[in-house]
Amino acid sequence: MPELRKDPVVGRWVIISTERGRRPSDFNGSHPPVSNAKVCPFDPGNEDKTPPEVLAYREPGTLPNTPGWTVRVVPNKFPALQIEGGLDRRGEGLYDKMNGIGAHEVIIETSDHTKELSELSQEQIENVLWAFRDRVMDLKNDNRFRYILIFKNHGENAGASLEHSHTQLVATPIIPKVVTEELDGALQHYRMKERCVFCDMIEQEQREGKRIVSENEHFVSFEPFAPRFPFETWILPRSHISAFEDSQRSEFASLAQSLKDTLGRINKALNRPHYNFIVHSAPCRDTRLDYYHWHIEIMPKLTKVAGFEWGSGFYINPTSPEEAAQYLRDIEP
Description:
GO terms for molecular function: UDP-glucose:hexose-1-phosphate uridylyltransferase activity; zinc ion binding. By secondary structure, this protein is α+β, with helices and mostly antiparallel strands. Helix content is 25%, strand content 22%. It contains six helices and 14 strands. The strands form two sheets. Strands 3-4-7-9-8-13-14-12-11-10 form a ten-stranded antiparallel beta sheet, with helices on both faces. The protein has a four-stranded antiparallel beta sheet with strand order 2-1-6-5, with no helix packed on it.
């Protein structure tokens, strides 16, 4: 069983997931490449090579775990956390730990092995977003889970081990430290000004315009004022919504358009970089917060995080967000 252990100094939780099969002797400093095996477990016809699906959007008349799907969600075959069991919170002298209980799922975005997310149609991307929502709504019913993180690793440098386009979802019994820091910062702003910091951010970015990448009826895509990485890009809903899953149908359509546009610009401008994106949303039990605003953070993998960044918490970004935004605006997606 995986185990969650808490750092007693900074309060950071770490997953010790020995079930993922890496022993000390397995580490030799090299990086396993993205799999180019002839048989992709995510391709239609290979449904038996994944755990049974927990959700699929299918052609009428097709059976579960057979071809005929357009979006398919399966448990991760090598999960970081295990869904069965109790938390069993306990102490070991100074240290706190609990069982590594959670959910780890893979959203296979398309049956077409050759397409990446930005190359799908707007309607196909919208279906992927609905799959995100459906899984979040289902997992929120489990009282053991306090946070659900949706993230995408695209390309070897971003941590992907399979090239078939997919996103992952991990439900955890604790709220991650990064999210807690974001929530605390947003709450501090709200207590001082009685306004959402993200709403204020959108208003200022639209007023100034110099960091805006693109916008539509419901969403704004822009380079944040203090980006950690070159071409780091955020997508925020214009209206105040603290939880991703509370978005309306029209907003999902607009989000699909914004995500396709933004990723398309990044791909053309930067020669199809590897990237991560993360959906930051409200915790499972606090989905209607006046001070928090859900959003997507996209981070192209263009630089390395090295010793200074790890040791200090400072990030060195060689490209200003204003220059990056202008460059992306000039691209025709």
